[in-house]
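Escalated from tier 1: zinc ion holo job.
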Amino acid sequence: MPKLFYLYEGGLKSLNNGNKFTNMYHCSSCGHSFKSLWDGVGNYYGVRPNDQIIYCPKCGSRFTEVTQKNDFSFMADGEYSPLSMRICLEEYKDSLRLTLSGKEIVCDEDSEYMFHHRLYKETISFNVAQRTAIYKRYINHKLIINYNLCNIFDTSFGRDTNLKFLNHRHITSIYAGDFKKILKLLRERLSKKLESKLKFKIKSMYVCHGNKGSYFIKPILNIAYRLAFTDLNNLSVIDYNYIYRKYPFYYGSADRNFYDLDDAYLSDERLKIISKAKDTISGLLEIANLPNKPAIRRLVKDKPFLLLRHKQIYTIAQGNIDTFNNINNCLEF
Ligand SMILES: [Zn+2]
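Tier 2 regenerated the structure:
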């Protein structure tokens, strides 16, 4: 993808003067950066530059916020945004690796000049032998971020990755078919590797990306989750909204949607225990030190993210499975 947005825009504090605001711009048609001073205009959020129609001084391209809003990249101080992107999927014996790379710009409002330009590379390695999905981000060839996406409660990925810019817009829609093809290949090849290793059928890892979200983020997080939690269901819309959008209470629901697991609890050591266990539920029961009984298995399978609450109730019932079941049913109701 040679370009991701028509125009990149950020603030520049140094030249602000009274009700006049400086903005800096990068035109992706010709690669020129420029800045300009605007009168302030008030709206619901406060006062901002009145820059609704912009002409690039080098190539003359005309940008209007009203018609091209979704393909403008509005950058806050310190944020980065990709100028270009190349996506590549590679297959190895025990793993698949998705790589994105290209150039990005960084908005620095205190800068004397304009945007900083730099190279980025991100890799996600889905490893069937290790049962991990390691995310790495490099800036100018230097590794700066490195973590495991199987920890589903760690939401950093949605902020760190440039995949967040591949949401449904005019420019990205040209590539929508290719995005779906890459994800399908990734799911199918990974399922095949898992099945030959674990000797049981892996249920489809397909989830919809969601209308407003990135084509990649939710599908990739679900694949990473299923790589560790192989025999559980895909992440539901409710799970995803709770974890990533922090909706603790869904419309009309009670607090039973409040998940008590968090990113600190799902450490690499505990994820390893889960992936080494006979099945996911046995692994979860092992890390919570709960007995492997049908009544408890059923509840954990239904609501795996309420593991610690199941544990609390079990402690109250002092090892009596019947009492545990009764209290749990009452709370569930
Ligand atoms: Zn231009």
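The longest helix spans residues 176-198.
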